[in-house]
Structures are given as C-alpha cells and as structure tokens.
Amino acid sequence: MAERSDQQISEPESGVRPMTEGWGPRTVPAGTGTTGRREFERLLTPLLDSLYGAALRMTRDPSDAEDLVQDTVVKAYRFFDRFQPGTNFRAWLLRVLTNLYINQYRKAERQGERVDLDDEEDVWIWAKVWEQAGNNTAYDPEKHVMARLGQETICAAIDALPAEFRVVVTLSDVEELTYEEIAQALEIPVGTVKSRLYRGRKQCQKLLWGYMQEGSTA
Amino acid sequence: VSDHTHPDGYTCEQAFSRLYEYLDRVLTPEEDAQVRQHLAVCEDCVRHFQFEEKLLDTIREKCRTGRAPETLRRKIETLLDQL
Fold first, then answer.
1. How is chain A classified by DSSP, letter by letter?
2. Do B75 and A70 touch (CB under 8 A)?
3. How far is B63 from chain A (nearest CA, A)?
4. Which residues of chain B does A69 touch, with a Cβ-Cβ cutoff of 8 Å?
5. What residues in A contact B1, CB-CB < 8 Å?
6. A85 vs B36, more confident
7. CB A52, CB A65: distance < 8 Å
C-alpha cells in the first residue's frame, strides 16, 4: 500500500504561512505599468475557467467561488512581478488561489470537519464491481462504471471530502498540478501531498461506490 | 488483487502499492521499470491499472467542463481596468 501518514489531520493547515513570507516587500511596482497589466490580462483570461472551477470545488459555493477568483486576481496582480516569465502561470495562480482559500475562506468555514480514522475501510471500485459480477468473465467494468459516473456524482464526491483532501484532489486530479506544485501551493512536504492524495482518492472511490449503489445522482 | 509472484519476481500487491505513483509518473526510473516489467507479464494488473487510470481521466473530464460565469468575467474586466 502507498504510504500512510499518522499526522494530525484535524488541523491540517496549521503549518501554512502567508504566501507573502519569503517573497519580500515589492520594491519596484513593475506590475502596475500598462504593459504589465496587459501582459497579466493576456495570461489570465484563458485561465479563468480553470480558476473558477478550482475555486468552486474548494469553496463548494458559486458566490464564494466568484469572490475567491476576484481576490486571487487582485493578489496575483499585486505580486505579478514575482512571477517568473516562462514558468507555469496557471500553477502560480492556483498557488495564490489555494493560499487565499486556506487563509481566508477556510478559516471562516465551520471547523467541524474531521476525518474519522476508524472509517477508513478500503473500498476499491474495481474489487467491488468484480464481487458483484461474480464469475461473469465477459463483464466490462470500465463500460459499466464510467457510464454511471456523471458530472453531478463526481462533483458531489469531491465536495464531500474533508477540506485537506478536497484541495489536494482538486489540484491534482482536476487541475493536473504536479506533487511538487501542490506542495508549493500548500507549503507542505511532497510526502504529505502524496499521502493526502492517496487517502483523498480512496475516500472519493468509497463515496462514488456508495452513490452508485444508491443509484442516485448519476 | 491476487498475491502470487510472477516470473518477474514481483507480486501483484507490490505493483498495486505503486499504482498511483506509477500513474502520476513520480516513480524513479528503476521503480517504474519494475512496475512495467510486472505489467508485461500480468494481464490482471494491466486491466486493473487501466481501470484506475480511466477512473481518474473520467473525474478530470467531468470536473473540467465548467465555465466561469459571464458575470464573473465582466467583474474581472472591470477589476483589471481599475488596477
């Protein structure tokens, strides 16, 4: 099995520092010139769908998601001179967005979310579908499972994840950031990214399997 | 997941323990080669790995279809004009 972490997970973001730390005060207002603003807009515009999608998965609320994207744009513009041209602007923006989410929105959310460690029974959809299929060797699990996983079902499963897993699963499995980029966005070690992602994906499978059994939102 | 050892000296369980790191392409070249060698001789694991990869692809595809609302786009335009 992949690595499991025994870290305290009820206060996952306690080690996160404001992203301004280490960036230093801005000495030259490079981002405020017309050229800087145009360049910022040129880079930003094609990424708005992605930013909004990530914000929606994190906040789970369309109105909060819009606010988060706007705050991200303002902050990213303010620190635009810190962005290294030629590097991944989308990953950089998502880092700003994630940091804002954790430090502002996440704190404002209710703190009741906890992961019940006793409830981490393994549910692998692959194993479950074969249990149900019995000896039917002609059974095609991909065809049967994927057809039942609609957008609503999948989004509901991600939304049901505790925040510390939801953020990592969103950044990895929806936004396709690397472990390294996620580690930077969350200011946590790569090993912690890996263990949260593993547990988040596993919980996601368990939720999806549950929804499929209910035959609900699919 | 069966637990028998294949001719490559690698069990299905060992391969499965590296499933996500394999799919996420973060294994070292040596580890990656071990998993590949196992997949070359184990049809069951190939099918399982393909299923998990397809599941991740499905999650990504379904979650990425959303577009930013027009209201937000307009707000951002206004915001940028004020910056």
1. ---------SSTTTTPPPTTTTT---SS-GGGSHHHHHHHHHHHGGGHHHHHHHHHHHH--HHHHHHHHHHHHHHHHHTGGGS-TTS-HHHHHHHHHHHHIIIIIHHHS-TT----GGG-----HHHHHHHHHTT-TT--HHHHHHHH--HHHHHHHHHTS-HHHHHHHIIIIIT---HHHHHHHHT--HHHHHHHHHHHHHHHHHHHHHHHHHT---
2. yes
3. 6
4. 68, 72, 76
5. 127
6. B36
7. yes
Q: Which residues, numbered 79 to 108 in chain A, qualify as contacts with chain B under a Cβ-Cβ cut-off of 8 Å?
A: none
B interface mutation test: which of A43, A47, A49 has the most B CBs within 10 A? Answer: A49
CA distance A77 to A69: 12
Return the H-helix or E-strand segment holding B23.
helix B19-23
Q: Which pair of structure tokens corresponds to residue B21?
A: 């790191």
Cβ neighbours around A189 below 10 Å, total: 13
Global pTM value: 0.82
CB contact at 8 A, A109 and A117: no
**For chain A (length 218 residues), average pLDDT per consecutive 10?**
39 39 42 76 94 95 95 95 91 96 78 54 88 81 89 94 95 96 95 96 95 70
Indicate yes or no: CB of B62 within 8 angstroms of CB of A158: no
Q: In the 8-state DSSP scheme, what is residue B70? A: H
Q: Smallest Cα–Cα separation from A44: which of A74, A82, A84?
A: A74
Spatial separation of the C-alpha atoms in residues A103 and A13, rounded to whole Å: 9
Q: Look up residue A155 and give its two tokens.
A: 């989004």
Q: Determine whether the interchain pair B62/A155 forms a contact, defined as Cβ–Cβ distance below 8 Å.
A: yes
| Mutation to test the B interface, candidates A74, A75, A176, A190, most B Cβ within 10 Å | A74
> Residues of A with CB below 8 A from B21's CB?
2, 194
